[in-house]
Design goal:
Length: 317
Amino acid sequence: MTSTTLTAPAVALGTWAWGDSGEAGDGHFGSQLTAAGRREIVAKAQSYGFTLWDTAAVYGMGRAETVLGQALNGHARGGYQLSTKFTPQIAGDGDDPVADMLQRSLVRMGTDQVDLYWIHNPADVARWTPLLVPLLRSGRIKHVGVSNHNLAEITLADRILGDAGFRVEAVQNHYSLLYRGSERAGIIDHCRQHDVRFFSYMVLEQGALTGRYGPAHPLPAGSSRAAAYNGILPQLQALTDRMRAVGEDRGASAAEVATAWAIAKGTTPIIGVTKPEHIDGLTRALDIELADDEIAELEALADAADVDTRGSWEQDI
Ligand SMILES: NC(=O)c1ccc[n+]([C@@H]2O[C@H](COP(=O)([O-])OP(=O)(O)OC[C@H]3O[C@@H](n4cnc5c(N)ncnc54)[C@H](OP(=O)(O)O)[C@@H]3O)[C@@H](O)[C@H]2O)c1
């Protein structure tokens, strides 16, 4: 059996943007983080209790894992949790592609075990899930989650692990005001009923729901997120204006309202932090209690925006 139950802070931190090279216009985010900047974010987050770091082998094709390991260097290994992913779409053709990909992640991050290991996308649940069992038994991974899986795939993965005495302890899906497929598909209810932690990613829609970006100030030119979102920013204006107003009453920003919304829905947001001040924002978000009518109003505005922000890697859940 899994030796301990998965525990996690109320908000996890994401590092996809950390995989960008730092060159202007390069990468998915067009992010220009420096090593010193990443270390500052890590030090602040750790001191505030945000100690679960989500990454993946594919973020910058290994770069995000490498720079995360470097930024955490010097912090006690027991003081933080590492969450990374096996991505079937880049699996090798060796005897055990899962163990091979995990091993490369461990080397990049400079550690010998991962606290939370995910199957990133559901390419073939029956093929990949059993390969997690020896990794759990050896202690190289402590807990297992599945990401971007639909309800049937979550249940199948859980049954496969259950046969070996383990379980799916976490689900990680795209979930934001604009993208609530996991709610409609009953996945969030399923997680609540089965004591499975639901981690919501892209709660800020990669910056489009922070209030920082808009038609007059679009996402960084040349980045993939600009291509995905800049065309819909005008449709998001009414929503982000209202989020900003809801935040202003509490001394908080639109991004913090988005984060508070995800927490109010019973999920654990994974926020892609790129600046130390984002950590202050997370502490404010934890203090925001949205009223039911505020949640309903924000969701109605989100629906009225009538946009589809499904990522190219996501199935229609
Ligand atoms: N399993 C999967 O398939 C999957 C897919 C996507 C993401 N994820 C995970 O979820 C994490 C979060 O998603 P994401 O990084 O793609 O997008 P996100 O969290 O929706 O947005 C991140 C962007 O929002 C801005 N931001 C972050 N915190 C802010 C704050 N407090 N105030 C204002 N702006 C803020 C930053 O943009 P600027 O730098 O421009 O300020 C940042 O790049 C990822 O890093 C990754 O770990 C998983």
